[in-house]
Structure formats: C-alpha cells, structure tokens
Amino acid sequence: MVFQATTSAPVNIACIKYWGKRDTSLILPTNSSLSVTLDQDHLRSTTTSRADPSFTSDRLWLNGKEEIVKDGGRMSTCIKEMKRLRKELVEDKDPKAPQLSTFSVHIASYNNFPTAAGLASSASGFAALVSSLAALYALPCPPTTLSLIARQGSGSACRSLLGGFVAWEQGSQSNGLDSHAVQVAPESHWPTMHALICVVNDAKKGTSSTSGMQRTVETSPLLQHRIKHVVPQRMIDISKAILEKDFDSFARITMADSNQFHAVALDTSPPIFYMNDVSRAIIAVVEEYNRVAVETTGKVKAAYTFDAGPNAVIYTEEANVKEIIEMIVKFFPQQEKFKDPFGLFGAQGLGEGKLPQGFNEAVAKTWELGSVKGLIHTKIGGGPRVLDEAEALLNAEGTPK
Ligand code: DP6
C-alpha cells in the first residue's frame, strides 16, 4: 500500500501588503493583508508527499534538488504540525486508521515557473506542501485551518490556500490561532479580473522579505503609522470594492498600498530599494494611462503593484487587457512575440501599440530590448487542487522522478 498524494497550489499577489512580524517564530504579522490568487493553469507549485514506514527521515526535493529539512526550520515546522493534525484529527479518533503520523515523509516539489524569473515561489511552495500533506493524511480540515500551518512556512503562503480574493487576518492571540486566511470572494465573483506580470531584468540579489521586513519593524517610524492608521481602513475599503466589483476603488487602493510598502522599505535603516528604473517607468506609464482614462471616463483602468523585487503585476479588467499589453510592449519591447492565452486579441492580433488619445508619450522612453524580459498574462484563479497519480513527482523508490 502506497500512502501518497499530489496537489498543486497557486501564487498570490497582495494588494494590501504584509510587511512586518510581531512574532518571528510563529510568523504573526503586524498588519492584515489581502491578495488575489492567480490561475494555476499558468503559475503553480506541484507537490507529492509520501509516508512510508521504511523511510528513515523527512526529506524534501525542490525542483529535483534535495533541500535539507533542518530541525526547527520552517519546512520541518510545517511537516511536524501536519503530523500532529493527522494524529489528533484522524488516528486518535479511529485507532484502525493507518498510523501515518509515525512514518517519515518524502516530498518532491516543482515550480512550473523559473525561480530565476524572480517570482516569489515560497507562497505557492508552502501552500502546495501543506495541501499535499492534508490530502495524504485525509485531514477533515477547511482551508482556513490549513492556512494556520502554511503561515508558519512563509507568511504570504497562508493566502494561497484559497482562491479568489483572500484576506489574511492578523489576529490578536499570542498563540496565532486567529491569524489565518479567509476568502473575501471566490474567483467566480469577478472572473474578468486579469493580471499581467512584467518580469523585470534584475541581476543583483536583493534583500529577502524575511530579513527586510524585520529591519523595517526595528527601524521605520513610518511603518508604525501604516500599521495603526492606514491598513485597517484600507482592508475595509478594498473588501467593499471587491464585493461591489468597483475596479476604480480596488485599483486606487492597490497602487497606494504598493507605494506605501516601498515607502516603508525606503524608511528602513539602512534603506531598502526593491524597485528599479524600469519598475518606476512602468508606474509612470500606468499612471499616465489612468490619467487619460479618468479624463474620459472618470475612472482608472489599471493597477500596478510591486513586491520585494522589481517585477510589476498589473491588474485590469478583461476589456482593457489588449490595450494595456500593446502599451507595455511599446515602451518595453519584447524579444518574443506575445502569446494570447485567452484569445482576446481578435483576428488582427496585437496591434502596433497605438496609445489612447491624449496619452503623453514623453512620460517614459522606449526601453532597450530585454528591460522587461518577459510578460506573463494570467487571471484570477482557485485554491489548491488534488491531482491524480499520473502527475506524481516521486518514483517507486520514493525519490524524484
Ligand atoms: C512583499 O511571505 O515572503 O510579498 O513570512 O518571512 O516568509 P516570510 O515573508 P513573505 O513576504 C511577502 C512580502 C510581500 C507582501 C505580501 O505578499 O503580502
């Protein structure tokens, strides 16, 4: 009998950023946050977990390479917590159930997007780890309960346990039991929400989120203002905007919060810079696009957001996707012809990048080829999926295929 399960989990990109921990070992945040889950058809982590009495230790391979599961480390904490849930929720209640919590596990995980693209993989990775163990252990747990464990792998991972629009409620208990993810609205609520990821060329290795946010907590006075006086109202306002499908408010809050996150990074001592000149040029182009849109319709049509690196994610509604891609490709020429995964461009395909009437082209120069080294067009998507045996990543011996 092989005890094994394979699942995939999505990437999420925050509109209200998590930046700061009040407890670094349990990973409890200084503020609530909210994200959009992206479609796993384009970006996902897939993980196979197997429990077997012949395994002598917990082992994990990431993209084929073995990672050391350090005792007390984040991976080991997640595995331990999942074994504890298996024991409490299944084995203690049914003594005839296989005692899987006493077996070591082998885990193989694979990201379908290049780590070199600079896209955060920890969120989808830990969500896939937790969801594959939950499937292996047949845990009768809702995603919110599992999010408590994914959170201890990487804070932002707790939001990848659910699809659609997801809030991570900071909670107030010191044991962290109320610091979990909840769904604000499922992906079906606003299916016209699209995301365009602009992968910005970046040679240097930046400050990691974990160490960067800790330095911000220790040194930034602006962070205290953000936590107390800005984020609580934004969480209320953006949730309302989502429920009402009010893109204008959603976009304005998303952009303001990205900018404030980068402002608290700058307010850190020594300062942290995650965006570069290309990132700032993308902001200038989107802001000009929105200025023209507001002049004609009274509403903005696109929202940029940046995490702990120079890549941009642009949220927009389906009707504007083609226009925005044409605009981005005009300022940031692409080596490869852009593919149209959703068939939105019509028979003529992508146009020559005619800008909307009144657009001031002088806001940005035409950048050299490769400044934005790739574009990934995706949509809002659902939570983790259980996959069938054929997709398993472990071979008969329990090592990666
Ligand atoms: C800027 O979740 O990667 O993407 O909890 O230390 O693993 P750790 O940090 P991580 O931080 C993510 C920061 C962010 C904002 C966000 O996703 O909310």
List keywords for this structure.
32% helix, 16 strands, 21% strand, 2 domains, 401 residues, Alpha-Beta Plaits, 6-stranded mixed β-sheet, binds ligand DP6, alpha+beta, single chain, Ribosomal Protein S5, domain 2, 4-stranded antiparallel β-sheet
Tell me the layout of helices and strands.
Blueprint: E1 3-10, E2 12-16, E3 21-23, E4 28-29, E5 33-37, E6 44-52, E7 59-62, E8 65-67, H1 74-91, E9 104-111, H2 122-136, H3 143-150, E10 165-168, E11 181-185, E12 193-200, H4 209-219, H5 221-243, H6 247-266, H7 277-297, E13 302-306, E14 312-317, H8 321-331, E15 372-379, E16 385-387
Parallel strand pairs: 7-9
Antiparallel strand pairs: 1-6, 1-16, 2-5, 3-4, 5-10, 6-9, 7-8, 10-11, 12-14, 12-15, 13-14
Helix pairs in contact: 1-2, 2-3, 5-6
Summarize the structure.
The protein has 401 residues and is α+β, with helices and mostly antiparallel strands.
Q: Stretches where pLDDT falls below 50 for ≥5 residues?
A: none
The CATH topology of the largest domain comes to: Ribosomal Protein S5, domain 2
Question: Into which percent range does the helicity of residues fall?
Answer: 25-40%
Class from helix and strand fractions? alpha+beta
Q: What sort of overall outline do the alpha carbons produce when their principal axes are compared?
A: globular
Count of beta strands: 16
The first-level CATH class of the largest domain is given as: Alpha Beta
* Overall number of domains: 2
Note the gap between the termini: 19 Å
| CATH architecture classification of the largest domain | 2-Layer Sandwich
Q: Mean pLDDT, as a whole number? A: 95
Strand order of the largest sheet: 8-7-9-6-1-16
The ligands bound in this entry are: ligand DP6
Order of helices and strands: EEEEEEEEHEHHEEEHHHHEEHEE
Question: So how many helices?
Answer: 8
Biggest sheet statistics: 6 strands, mixed
Strand content: 15-25%
